[in-house]
Amino acid sequence: MKLLVVEDEHKTADYVRQGLMxxxxxxxxxxxxxxxxxxxxxxxxxxxxxxxMLPGMDGRKILQTIRAAGNQVPVLFLTARSxxxxxxxxxxxxxxxxxxxxxxxxxxxxxxxxxLRRGGSPIPHDRIQIxxxxxxxxxxxxxxxxxxxxxxxKEFALLELLARRQGEVLPRSLIASQVWDMNFDSDTNVIDxxxxxxxxxxxxSFEPKLIQTVRGLGSTLDLPAACPVCLSAASGFALxxxxxxxxxxxxGGAPAVQLGQRGIPRPAFRRNG
Length: 273
Hints:
Elements: E1 2-6, H1 10-22, E2 26-30, H2 33-42, E3 47-51, H3 59-68, E4 75-79, H4 84-93, E5 97-100, H5 105-118, E6 127-130, E7 133-136, E8 141-144, E9 147-149, H6 153-164, H7 172-179, H8 190-202, E10 211-214, E11 218-221, H9 228-241, E12 248-249, E13 255-256, E14 258-259, E15 265-266
Parallel strand pairs: 1-2, 1-3, 3-4, 4-5
Antiparallel strand pairs: 6-7, 7-8, 8-9, 10-11, 12-13, 14-15
């Protein structure tokens, strides 16, 4: 489930974003009015947390523009203005709820969940399971085949991001922004190293291998047979290099291609007889 936070106060923005991510949401962040309006009108969000006083364009104007376009996404106003007139004006403009700063995060989270429930959106569960991999989001624990896997906080955040978007190939730029809250620098290998370390803990001692790296695209977590992008990447690799991965036919006659650790095809051998 994807939320947008539009807030110019850096500490408040980072606090809200981190808390919502730990609660199981995917969160995008805009730090001024124009960026917030652009993201709100070009991306799909299940809910927007919107500050009223923003540089470049205030939250009321953003909300008016969103509603004028027919977008009925739930909007929760955040503001330091606590007068009754301010609250009434915000609600009349189309806001679904209004929270005054300073606030306790537990109240913000409760209001977010209430708005999502009111809109018929499913609330994220506190557990994710893919094959024999299980994530306990409340306790920040991961197990595979019943065996607990010790992860750092960043490793768990990376694993959770991959698991929540199962089957999607996530580019390094997205992983960098969501897990490390930084702009991706192509000269750094931080993401590649993190993926390798996570794969060593999650996959090296277990089958099937769940974490795949698709060369030139990014990384994904999924059952190998359910990863069409990996198979597509394998075909692209063959076209680029002239290499044709060896194929064998199962009993049903369907060709099969085996993928290596990085989503690159490797020959699959089968003895006849």
